[in-house]
């Protein structure tokens, strides 16, 4: 493999443009704010959902899942890939939905060829093929936040770290499947048609969340749906179309910001401020430094009074 995989955010704009850059057409992601089947149905035609949660790093793998049942036969009949590399689970989860909906949507030439190439592979080899795909890795990494301080491809998580994991839920062959690359096989949650998906998947997600302490609120749910602009055009809702186009513009701007780090810019800005203070003469620079120190000391004292302890 020629390079590593960086961490990407669980963000509708990131996922939407990621799959678009992979050649998928007329599909987008929508963030769901509640575990309500009606909210999921309102998103239009739903292909599946991507769920992000805190992964229990100390948990050992069991022969039986905590909910549902392993469907080992399905591993050869649907696209299911084992996760073989850190940080790839977000893209792997969305591909788990898309590659199993090939007949319902346009996944593009590259992904179709990848699916055909790995069609007869066991799940472990599919995972290796995905991890070694230059195209998929490069598109994935293009949406990672730029960081001049951390090499995310080298860091290894420990049991003390907060580790987050993406998995997919979708209806395939009239069954509700949980597709998690860290599990040995797809997990079946029973009969489920495409139309029943919103009503069937929400209780499964609720049961999963209930296994966590009530104080744990760090979950995220994204729905993979048909491009909402298409429906707006079909029904002639110009207001909804304008809102969706505006949302796309904001996503593009946010994605552009993710590709840049601003350390150099901030450094040059500070240099400029210092130069201006030095030009003023008469001790202006020293006065500015002392004023800054006094303000910092005042903030620290106020934080201590409030019971907040500053970290070293």
TrEMBL record:
Membrane-spanning ranges: none
UniProt GO BP: protein deubiquitination; ubiquitin-dependent protein catabolic process
Domain UCH catalytic, residue spans: 4-226
InterPro entries: Papain-like_cys_pep_sf, Peptidase_C12_UCH, Peptidase_C12_UCH_sf, Ubiquitinyl_hydrolase_UCH37, UCH_C
Hydrolase recorded as keyword: yes
Record site feature (Important for enzyme activity), residues: 180
Record-marked site positions (Transition state stabilizer): 83
GO cellular component: a single term: cytoplasm
Molecular function, one GO term: cysteine-type deubiquitinase activity
Catalytic activity: Thiol-dependent hydrolysis of ester, thioester, amide, peptide and isopeptide bonds formed by the C-terminal Gly of ubiquitin (a 76-residue protein attached to proteins as an intracellular targeting signal)
Source organism (scientific name): Amniculicola lignicola CBS 123094
SUPFAM superfamilies: Cysteine proteinases
Region (Disordered): 289-312
Active site: 89 (nucleophile), 165 (proton donor)
Coiled coil: none
EC number annotated for this UniProt entry: 3.4.19.12
Entry keyword set: Hydrolase, Protease, Thiol protease, Ubl conjugation pathway
Keyword Protease: yes
UniProt-recorded name of the protein: Ubiquitin carboxyl-terminal hydrolase
Family, per entry: Belongs to the peptidase C12 family.
Pfam families: Peptidase_C12, UCH_C
């Amino acid at each position: 493999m020629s390079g590593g995989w960086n961490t990407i955010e669980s963000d509708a704009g990131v996922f939407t443009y990621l799959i678009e850059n992979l050649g998928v057409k007329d599909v987008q992601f929508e963030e769901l704010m509640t575990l309500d089947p009606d909210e999921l149905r309102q998103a239009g035609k739903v292909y599946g959902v991507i769920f992000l949660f805190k992964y229990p790093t100390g948990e050992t793998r069991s022969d039986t899942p905590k909910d549902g049942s392993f469907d080992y036969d399905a591993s050869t009949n649907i696209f299911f890939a084992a996760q073989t590399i850190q940080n790839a689970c977000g893209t792997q989860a969305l591909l788990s939905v898309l590659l199993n909906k090939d007949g319902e949507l346009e996944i593009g030439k590259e992904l179709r060829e990848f699916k055909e190439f790995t069609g007869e592979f066991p799940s472990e080899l599919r995972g290796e093929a995905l991890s070694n795909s230059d195209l998929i890795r490069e598109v994935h990494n293009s949406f990672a936040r730029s960081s001049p301080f951390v090499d995310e491809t080298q860091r290894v998580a420990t049991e003390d770290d907060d580790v987050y994991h993406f998995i997919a839920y979708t209806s395939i062959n009239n069954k509700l499947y949980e597709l998690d690359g860290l599990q040995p096989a797809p997990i079946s949650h029973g009969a489920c048609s495409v139309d029943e998906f919103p009503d069937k998947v929400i209780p499964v997600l609720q049961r999963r969340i209930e296994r966590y302490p009530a104080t744990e609120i760090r979950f995220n749910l994204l729905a993979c749906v048909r491009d909402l602009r298409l429906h707006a055009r079909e029904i002639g809702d110009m207001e909804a179309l304008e809102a969706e186009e505006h949302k796309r513009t904001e996503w593009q701007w946010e994605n552009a910001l993710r590709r840049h780090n601003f350390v150099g810019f901030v450094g040059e800005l500070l240099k400029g401020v210092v130069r201006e203070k030095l030009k003023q003469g008469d001790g202006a620079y020293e006065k500015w430094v002392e004023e800054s120190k006094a303000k910092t000391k005042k903030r620290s004292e106020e934080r201590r009074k409030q019971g907040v302890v500053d970290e070293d």
